[in-house]
Write a structure and sequence with these properties.
This protein has 16 helices and 19 strands. By secondary structure, it is α/β, with parallel strands linked by helices. The protein folds into two domains: 125 residues, Leucine Aminopeptidase, subunit E, domain 1 (3-Layer(aba) Sandwich), CATH 3.40.220; 320 residues, Aminopeptidase (3-Layer(aba) Sandwich), CATH 3.40.630.10. Strands 6, 7, 8, 9, 10, 13, 14, 15 and 17 form a nine-stranded mixed β-sheet that branches. It has a five-stranded mixed β-sheet with strand order 2-3-1-4-5. It has a three-stranded mixed β-sheet with strand order 11-12-16, covered by helices on one side. It is elongated, with a radius of gyration of 24 Å. Keywords: Aminopeptidase, Hydrolase, Manganese, Protease.
């Protein structure tokens, strides 16, 4: 078994005389590009039938039997619009050599393809006995902010690694260890409130959700940066979700190691921000719990009093994520940060509406929502805004308590969950909640099956303009 620390992302290497020329070719530019090549290269490509389809690879030998150059297709404009990271998807098809990139890409296209190359280097190998196979490497492309790309890739690698690690090795204590390691890496300060101290520190909902497990619940709190706007990130850290006494069926429980995907994603985003040295006052809050079953588990029908003082009727113990987030959001809101972002694998309703690839989000600020949608399209990190529809407020009011954690009827589940969370954010002027999936159900270019970050890249692109208008 490999060591417990997350893997280093596969990043760029220095220029070398042995690097092989690697060409990225759009289908519409194929004829013009081919005409520029030597006759022997044109003949070889013709014999291969190379048509520059997305991710298609052509290896051209030299006269000595080595490799003269390689070409990777990017397809037509329509195909590129449908498929991200063609370049990264082709990385595994290349021999494990060092390559020098040739392209006719815009700066935005180059950034996307270079990031895809880095993301394609990730493999979850924590429990594999064998050494990782060698991979193709890329000389750092000119006119590319490689530090930024490497920070994004490292943040995404951290997110994937945390989500992929099974609950047997990623409970609240292990998530705390990863959280503290991230703080140490960036000279941030961190604190932990655990067990019954949660009650003493007025975090009763986090305690109620996690108290049934013999792995103590806790709130993780990190601060970094001494000046600039105040940005707080809150991530759901339910390390495994049995559903509690409203026990999930086995088929629904199989992926519940990913129920801390919100925590993993905000930690990945925090790494990107700190690695790039942003001028912000960053705070990261993660309520880390395991929703388990025992004699002291919270029960359907229980009424809990939150940190904010709002009473909550527990009509389904499987709607626990919004409970732990409620206390964390209330705590964050007490400081009135300039911006507050919440990320959580929260509702199945979001998946029914959007599928696994698109993360819906909700925002109290139109300018923030518009910037996120623009950034989503720019960096191809799919998001879609859903409304905090005021007419549905009554659906989360059960009558015998202030709030209902699981409204009956099953309609508008993602919206009612977001409305529930919004009740705990009153002072902060800009708030956004992301209902992510955190999992890639089948392999795609630069996105292996398994844990996946969603929304972090769009936030990373949008936040500078929002925080420093």
């Amino acid at each position: 078994m490999t060591q417990d620390s997350p893997p280093s992302p596969m990043v760029f290497v220095a220029e070398t005389s042995t690097a092989i020329d690697l060409h990225l070719v759009n289908a519409e530019d194929l004829e013009a590009w081919t005409d520029m090549q030597p006759r022997r290269v044109r003949t070889w490509l013709e014999s291969l039938g190379f048509s520059a389809k997305p991710g298609e690879v052509a290896l051209v030998p030299d006269s000595d039997g080595g490799m003269a150059l390689a070409a990777i297709g990017r397809g037509t404009a329509k195909e590129r619009a449908r498929q991200r990271f063609c370049f990264g998807g082709a990385r595994a098809k290349l021999p494990a050599r060092t390559y020098r990139l040739h392209h006719m890409l815009t700066p935005e296209e180059l950034e996307e393809e270079a990031l895809g190359w880095c993301l394609a280097g990730y493999r979850f190998r924590r429990f594999r006995q064998t050494e990782a196979p060698a991979q193709a490497m890329l000389v750092a492309p000119a006119q590319l902010d490689t530090g930024r790309i490497e920070a994004i890739a490292a943040g995404e690698a951290l997110t994937r690694e945390l989500i992929n690690t099974p609950a047997s090795h990623m409970g609240p204590q292990e998530l705390e260890a990863a959280f503290l390691a991230l703080a140490t890496e960036h000279s941030a300060t961190a604190s932990v409130i655990a067990g019954d101290d949660l009650l003493h520190q007025n975090l009763p909902l986090i305690h109620a959700v996690g108290r049934a497990s013999d792995r103590s619940p806790r709130l993780l709190d990190m601060r970094w940066g001494k000046s600039g706007p105040r940005l707080t990130l809150v991530g759901k850290g339910v390390c495994f979700d049995t559903g509690g006494l409203n026990l999930k069926p086995g088929a629904s429980m199989g992926l519940m190691k990913k129920d801390m995907g919100g925590a993993a994603t905000v930690m990945g985003l925090a790494h990107m921000i700190m690695a790039q040295g942003w001028q912000v006052q960053l705070r990261v809050l993660v309520p880390a719990v395991e929703n388990s079953v025992s004699a002291n588990a919270m029960r359907p029908g229980d009424i809990l009093i939150s940190r904010k003082g709002l009473s909550v009727e527990v009509n389904n113990t499987d709607a626990e994520g919004r409970l732990v987030l409620a206390d964390a959001l209330a705590l964050a809101d007490e400081e009135t940060p300039d911006m507050l972002v919440c990320m959580a694998t929260l509702t199945g309703a979001a998946r029914v509406a959007m599928g696994p690839d698109i993360a819906p989000f909700f925002s109290t600020d139109p300018a923030m929502a518009a910037a996120l949608m623009q950034a989503s399209a720019q960096v191809r990190d799919p998001l879609w805004q859903l409304p905090l529809h005021p007419a549905y407020e009554s659906m989360i009011e059960p009558g015998i308590a202030d709030l209902d954690n699981a409204p009956s009827g099953g309609m508008a589940g993602a919206i009612t969950a977001a409305l529930f969370l919004n009740r705990f954010v009153e002072a902060t002027p800009r708030f956004a909640h992301f209902d992510i999936y955190g999992h890639q159900p089948s392999a795609a270019p630069a996105r292996p099956k398994g844990g996946a970050g969603q929304g972090a890249r769009a936030l990373f692109a949008a936040l500078p303009g929002l925080l420093h208008p």
